[in-house]
């Protein structure tokens, strides 16, 4: 009998297992993959997420794996340009974009080191339910072995957007917003000088680049869903065409110098959503419980933040400090509150067309290095919304940029 069984051992499941094991609980975490192994990902970890790795003693391992530090962000949306970097957050003055073959193995090994039991290549086939519908455990098999039944006081689904745990408990979706785009990405040599770019063009297309492990640069494109059929006909040509359209000079350099190291990977992600976060005997974390468009790269960071929150609240329930249902109610409430701003901003940016309010504000911000640093700090998770979007802050932004009174917009609606 385990205290907790966690289904999924990547960016949400492994930290939750590690933290619960540190609290002294008997934890089993299972995953159908073996490690190290790859998975589709933005790779990007914001400073707010790196702060959690630092607190857990794992950031040095990410750096030691040869993950390059990034200290300059080039953000463009049409004619708006924000170039710079956020102020340090928890002393962290860089961002890192590790390959998932690197990051996930570090996380899984960290869970093992503190006593969590990790079983790889384990496929969950069902949950075990009690007479009143509460979850009592899981059923599944390791590799080609026999089906086993494993029981726990709490089962956590950290098994991604297509979560089997969420499906089995019929966790309801809410605040659903349709996905706007799709991604193709790969890894390239020959463009070491590019650094980090986040560029949106005028034809509902985007591309980004960021250095990662093995001396490679990850380059990704996003286009609107209505372009998917045409893109699939010739992905390599379409991929190049997006870069040519958004940044012609970079497109020329890419054509001449970039050498693709791996096949292009498509990512047709699901709609943006929240799922009910818990019920009798179960809880959800990571993409299993909350998913948004990858354009802002907040998936890994949110997985870390929510895994830590869930581990703290589940510990309160397991230790008898409070009723488990009350503890998980608080987890759900805080998760939704702390992610609301990122969710709104991400789904807005995913449309790749700024409403007049954001166009006016970001255009003004781009004229000032002070305000650019503030905005990049908000994106990084270290600046509160009100520091930019309160009426007083907006007034100062427009004043500093010399925006005429008639062109100032204060109401996002």
TrEMBL record:
Top-level taxonomic group: Bacteria
InterPro entries: FAD-bd (IPR002938), FAD/NAD-bd_sf (IPR036188), Geranylgeranyl_reductase (IPR050407)
Coiled-coil intervals: none
FAD-binding domain boundaries: 2-345
UniProt-listed SUPFAM superfamilies: FAD/NAD(P)-binding domain (SSF51905)
GO MF, one example: FAD binding
Record's protein name: Flavin-dependent dehydrogenase
